[in-house]
Amino acid sequence: MIRLLTYLIRNGIVTRADSFAELPETSNGMPKLSDNPCLGDACRVCEQVCPTEAIRIEPTVAEGATLSPCVTLDRGACINCSLCVDLCSTHTIVTDRDPRTASKNREELVLRSSEISKASKESSRLVQNPFKKSIACRVVSTGCSACDQEIAAASNPIFDMERFGIHVVASPRFADVLLVTGPVPKSMHEALKRCYGAMSEPKRVIAVGTCACTGGVHRGSYSESNGIGDLLPVDVYIPGCPPHPASIIAGIMLLMDRLPGLHDKKKDK
Hints:
This protein is of the alpha/beta class. It has two domains: 30-99 and 108-116, Alpha-Beta Plaits (2-Layer Sandwich), CATH 3.30.70.3270; 124-258, 3-Layer(aba) Sandwich (Rossmann fold). α6 (189-197) links the parallel β10 and β11 (204-208). The radius of gyration is 20 Å and the shape is globular. 22% of the residues lie in helices and 17% in strands.
């Protein structure tokens, strides 16, 4: 005990006071769209290099006139490789240092340069949330050790998600929410359904990582690894490959209605 107190006095508290501060330069944040116009057909490098086809560039047509190209960025399919950010000469695609990337709606993860994301109807309703004070999570890994490690990091003294009332439990019978990681191959479908069925109501599901959201690089494979969306009802999507521990905590707190969602963030100028 004396050694512990001596360490704390000398080094101070290591837990981050601002849990959702901007990510450091050494961390690959999710890509986002800026107001800079895209070159369209004259470039298309980002569309060509994206390994998961998360980027689409299409012309915008209004009253018969072709306007500037519309860039569509699906963060639910993005694996944070940052190739698009590095190769975008116009800086239409830039790095998002905000860890609050989670969304309650899958469509809100799809960013378009031609429009501003609208708030979902569900997020605007005043509904009593039984998990607002605390929540018990059962982690189910379907093949992604990286996301599992980031969830473990969210429990360390630096991020300390338990101070927000977020706890990890060993059994689905004691869980309020399933934290699903990995691409969810066919071999895990029945196991996930049984795990979900063992939970008591009310129960929720969070897709942690791009693989759980859409399948990521495994999407469309023979193993039917297309994420969890077609198998169980997903309440929150946390994109990233893997998502930062702060993003995981932010996603869980979004489910707890203690954090603003993706739709509340203003488009960068």
